[in-house]
Write a structure and sequence with these properties.
Blueprint: E1 2-6, H1 17-27, E2 36-41, E3 45-48, H2 70-86, E4 92-94, H3 98-104, E5 112-113, H4 122-136, H5 144-160, H6 162-169, E6 173-175, E7 181-185, E8 188-193, E9 200-202, H7 204-210, E10 217-220, E11 230-231, E12 235-238, E13 247-252, E14 255-262, H8 266-271, E15 276-283
Parallel strand pairs: 1-2, 1-4, 4-5, 10-13
Antiparallel strand pairs: 2-3, 6-7, 7-8, 8-9, 10-12, 11-15, 13-14, 14-15
Helix pairs in contact: 1-4, 5-6
Length: 284
């Protein structure tokens, strides 16, 4: 089941006053984790709840006027249409202002409208609660731990791709309270998500688990001594798909030796002879 919600001025959305109201109504139902939330916004278009901590969704600051021009309407309806083509839902609940609902209606199949005036008015929130309660009971109860793991896997898929995400999350459990959550394999931590970064920060054990995929790697020279950051002169070679801010696996003589965050893209690491290439977090 899909729930369409408006954006908020405060980011990430979950920490805004309006989304706390929405979450309160959702969590009061008997089966809240069967509902998938999708935030409708501009200029990004649509943001799944599980990706709200990731840049740019976590930090853009564009005033919402309530007036949508034809270009904005076209872009949003195209994005939503493509999203619904790739992700099927039995039911769609629309809790959006009228000015948005009116122009997205053609791409929705038999939507349930829960917003009567302002999305945060008492009447609209009570109606949202009634609509959710009426519909969530028709589905098998979704385990919150399983849903939490699915959300983390969605972040990992966005960050590393689906194959790496599945391997990283295989047989793992998610512990901790949102947005500070750890990926654990038995008692071994593989990675962690924080509100500040949004992406998965790997431990050495997490890097070891996905190192064989041959992606997001940086090879440093054999005589380079790791003490802190890796600067460009120390980089021998790198995966050219690496972008600034990506989590990277650092190798020396093809063996894992550290993990960190890219401060340059992969091509720059190879070609540039100055500047910080990787901010190191863990060293073997």
């Amino acid at each position: 089941m899909l729930l369409l919600l408006p954006c908020s001025a405060k980011k990430p959305y979950s920490f805004s006053k309006s989304h706390k109201f929405f979450r309160e109504k959702l969590l009061s139902t008997i089966n809240p984790f069967v509902v998938h939330e999708l935030i409708v916004t501009w200029p990004i278009g649509i943001v799944p709840r599980e990706l709200e901590l990731i840049y740019p969704a976590s930090s853009y600051d564009i005033p919402v006027t309530g007036v949508w021009d034809e270009i904005e309407k076209k872009m949003l309806t195209q994005l939503l249409s493509e999203y619904l083509r790739l992700n099927e839902y039995e039911k769609i609940i629309v809790h959006l202002p009228t000015e948005i609902t009116d122009f997205i209606m053609p791409v929705l199949e038999s939507p349930i409208i829960s917003c009567t005036d302002s999305p945060t008015s008492k009447k609209s929130l009570d109606n949202l609660c009634d609509v959710l309660n009426k519909n969530v009971k028709n589905y098998e109860k979704t385990n919150p731990q399983l849903r939490s793991k699915e959300n983390i896997e969605a972040i990992a898929s966005y960050q590393f791709g689906k194959k790496i995400a599945k391997e990283l999350l295989k047989n793992s459990n998610i512990v901790g309270k949102y947005p500070y959550q750890k990926i654990m394999l038995d008692k071994t931590q593989l990675g962690m998500i924080t509100k500040e970064r949004g992406l998965i920060s790997l431990t050495i054990n997490g890097a070891e688990k996905i190192n064989n995929f041959g992606e997001y790697w940086v090879e440093i020279y054999s005589d380079f001594i790791l003490k802190g950051s890796v600067f460009a002169p120390g980089v021998k070679d790198a995966d050219e798909q690496i972008r600034i801010g990506d989590e990277v696996i650092v190798t020396r003589n093809k063996k894992l030796c550290a993990v960190g965050v890219a401060q340059m893209n992969g091509e720059e690491m190879i070609q540039t002879r100055q500047g910080e290439a990787i901010k190191i977090r863990h060293i073997i």
